[in-house]
Amino acid sequence: MRTFLTTILGASLASAALSTSALAGGFQRGTADTDILFEQGTAVMRTGVTYVNPQRGFESINGQSGNFGTYTQNYLIPSLAFGINSDMAGCAGTYVISFAAESDYTGAPGGALPAGPTANSRTETSEFESNEFGLTCRLSYTNDMGRFSLLGGVFAEDFTFDGTSLSGTPVGAAPLPGGGTTPVFLPVRTTVETKSDYAIGYRVGAAFEKPEIALRAQVMYRSEATHDNFTGTGSVVSNGNAYIIGPGGAQVVVPTAVPPAGTTVAAGTSNFSEVVSPQSLYINAQTGIAPGTLLLASFRWTDWSTNGTAVSSISTGGVTRSSLSPYNWRDGYTASIGLGRAFTDEISAAVSVGYDRGVSTGSETTYTDLYTLAGGVSFKANEWSELRFGGLVGYWTDGEQSINDGAYFNATVGDDFVYAVNASMKFTF
């Protein structure tokens, strides 16, 4: 029973990892592998990578329908965990990319997202990433009922942001035919690169195991981490011909002595608004329901409402240029349920279905409701090594954003898909 249980858990974890890390609502990418605290063996190491291909694109922007391409970018989620375990205690060191996003809006009209009525720039590209290094420990007590465990630990997380935006900067004035002048603008691309110091957070939880029925239930709370000490650099580079705003708001190119495209107009320090990686609560359970068969389920709540608007800026010569991105998200809920089956002592598989309630509220459209189907298979090569593979397909529902809900422009997205594959290796010593 114990061997079968271990084999099934391998495939179950491969499936569950895909369900929760491929796109677990909002910007969450990966979670620390604390399940390694329950693996057999004095020393256990697990390393893996997940590749995600999200297919999200606008169907219309400000009432204009068209094919604007996919603005979500493919990404990798590496993870590493090493645990030292005994029946009474254990500790695990972990690494994962916890939060990240990468967007490219060059397929939108004008090569960037439309500017809002008060915005002074349009987002062209944006990318950020948080690396998390953690240490989590287990203290266990066993009696006739089963094994009870208390879990706790700390993590350190950084935050790096790179982004570009398009705008127009005043470079002089042009005479009007009837007299007077009108401002002349130079199109520029603003680049911002910032990085925060590491912020510290903690985990705390509990678990119960009853090996006779292959039961394990676990609850884990992850605290928020606040990033507010950003440092960085930025630049402003000319991006085309000078222009004036003509009748009806049209841009009219004008001949004037301005720096050619590609010329650095200004450089200075950059900054990013305070960022809070949200607190979350994770519950998972699994139990044997028949010989060689395991039922598994999970639930996660994430406090995405802590972040409303992200602002990146660059200050040059007393002038501050900023790019704003409104989110105004609601809290996220992710749930999954699945089955694992051991075919032999060496081979097992699992399948799960999941639902992620979208966190978007009308300020942006990316994270609508998501339905997922994930599967995994585990191959135990020998007593000390195990190979796991998994795959996932997810279905995003359609959605819309509106300036009435805080968005800077009106837009719609249709039904879209996300695909993911995962591979990992486990070594037991």
Protein model, in words:
The chain has a single domain (2-343, 353-373), classed as Porin (Beta Barrel), CATH 2.40.160.60. Helices cover 5% and strands 62% of the residues. The protein has one helix at 2-21; strands spanning 43-55, 58-61, 64-65, 75-85, 89-104, 122-142, 147-175, 181-210, 215-222, 225-227, 230-238, 243-245, 251-253, 264-272, 275-277, 280-290, 293-302, 309-316, 319-326, 332-342, 347-357, 370-380, 385-396, 399-401, 411-413, 416-428. The protein has a 14-stranded antiparallel β-barrel with strand order 1-4-5-6-7-8-9-16-17-20-21-22-23-26. A hairpin with a 4-residue loop joins strand 8 and strand 9 (215-222). The radius of gyration is 25 Å and the shape is elongated.
Number of domains: 1
Note the beta-strand portion: over 45%
Helix percent reads under 10%
User: What would CATH call the homologous superfamily?
Assistant: Outer membrane protein transport protein (OMPP1/FadL/TodX)
Low-confidence segments: 1-23
Number of helices: 1
Number of strands: 26
Sheet with most strands: strand arrangement: 1-4-5-6-7-8-9-16-17-20-21-22-23-26
Order of helices and strands: HEEEEEEEEEEEEEEEEEEEEEEEEEE
Q: Which outline best applies?
A: elongated
Largest sheet: 14 strands, antiparallel, barrel
N-to-C CA distance: 21 Å
Q: What keyword list fits this structure?
A:
single chain, 429 residues, mainly beta, Porin, 26 strands, 5% helix, elongated
Tell me the layout of helices and strands.
Blueprint: H1 2-21, E1 43-55, E2 58-61, E3 64-65, E4 75-85, E5 89-104, E6 122-142, E7 147-175, E8 181-210, E9 215-222, E10 225-227, E11 230-238, E12 243-245, E13 251-253, E14 264-272, E15 275-277, E16 280-290, E17 293-302, E18 309-316, E19 319-326, E20 332-342, E21 347-357, E22 370-380, E23 385-396, E24 399-401, E25 411-413, E26 416-428
Antiparallel strand pairs: 1-4, 1-26, 2-3, 2-25, 4-5, 5-6, 6-7, 7-8, 8-9, 8-11, 9-16, 10-15, 11-14, 12-13, 14-18, 16-17, 17-20, 18-19, 20-21, 21-22, 22-23, 23-26, 24-25
